[in-house]
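Structure tokens please, single chain.
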Amino acid sequence: MKRFVLIMFAMLTITTTSSAQEIYYEIKHKAQANVSDPSTNPLVKQFSMFKIEALNYLAIKMKEEMPDSSATLLDKEALSLNTFLTIYTNALVESSQMPPAHQMKIISAFMDASYENPLFNDPDKELVLAFFKNGESLTRFSLDTDWRRAVLAANEAMKRLKK
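Here you go.
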């Protein structure tokens, strides 16, 4: 029995390792499919367009700033971006019956989590804050974000808001 569990664990590890290099491309591909599909809900399209831009920004900046970084780092950031947006979406849905002031606190908490956790400290604020400054958008986040730290910050902010 122990041997069977060890073999299954090894197979899972191998599968996870081989697919880890594909996470970035899978998330980007799904977002592109959502944007291309005319039947996609406009809000889903908006979130998908942000994902595409954020993923493109990550890939370009990592090549420029961190040429020796592994594909795994890009995959971890892509997965964290996806997680961040999922947590954000869930928080918005859960707060839909709350007063608008509470909803604004949630949006601000996620904006702050994104803005206050830069990955590259990019001086090109016009590019980095293009979505952040767009008051019409639900994805008002900085492109220059360390998404792994932003997820932690957002979770912590949500805990404080629930108290």
